[in-house]
Input
Amino acid sequence: MKKSVTRIILVFILVLFVGAMYYLYQKNAEDPIVYETEKVSKQNIVKKTVATGSILPLEEVLIKPNISGVIEEVFVEGGDYVKSGDLLCRIKVVPNLSALNDAKNRIDEAKIALEDQLRTLDRQKKLFSKGVISEADMQRVQVAYDQSKQAYNAANKRYDIIKTGTTKGFGNAANTQIRATVSGMVLEVPVEVGNQVIESNNFNEGTTIAAIADVEKMIFEGKVDESEVGKIKENLPLEITVGAIENKKFDAVLDYIAPKGKEENGAIQFEIKGTLKKQDSVFIRAGLSANASIILAKADSVLAINEALVQFDKKTKEPFVEIEVGDQKFERRAIKLGVSDGIFVEIQSGLSEEDEIKVWNRLEDEEEN
Output
């Protein structure tokens, strides 16, 4: 029995020994690690942050009527260029019965007063011709008659304005003729013939007849996150890309950053605006979605390497790379970094254009250590 147990133990030890020898053989048979290298290159590096928004006119004017009624005729459509004073549409007035009745009553009252003053004037003329009253008294009666006549004419004009929106002698000043107040392009005409419109007054904004803007002066309006707003400042250059216009970038200048942010979806957003430089060859439509790249820093034709090649000392946190000095032989070289765009980083000192940089693997290096 004891001999059997001894034999089993010896066989187990033999199996372990053979297994260990096979493992060591396999490890020795593996090829040694061969590190790849990358050369230093010259790059144009741009550090930027991106804001989303849209293209809008610098100034957009909404044309609203100063009288209520129904659209009778429209003379323009979106895309037309107009000058200040051009006729946009004509409104047919739908009179208010209460106001119309009041105006009619004023006419009747003014007519009664006028007829009374006329009779008084006739009597006073007879008395004046006989020398009973003075010239001054006669003049006062004449003035009273003229005032009554004027009130009667005014009541009639008021009645015409309430009924039709205009009256004799007003010409282009008629309320029913809606005209452009500025020159520019008609962006939209949100009304059609037959639509009812409401006048603009102290209690109501009124119905928009047309929107007019100078499309030669466009701006980018967007928002940036609170984590980025501290990096930007006014007068920084912008590169605008419009989704609807491929392979085209538009230059702009950041000229407004909102002093107060607004919460949107749990994050604080700050509004920004940038004025686009005039474009003669490309027409940019108002309202197009766009992205603005805000140029924070820029370096042209500088020595640069892939940022993934940079290592940092665990104690000093200073950057360094490993330079190839022989066949798979590397030495450590301290470097000074400059502008980074997240992929390439500028090398201000420590490397030359001929240097080969070790492509290191963080996980493998930590295992070896």
The two ends are 50 Å apart (CA to CA). The longest strand covers residues 289-306. The first helix runs from residue 2 to 29. Residues 3 and 347 are 74 Å apart (CA to CA).
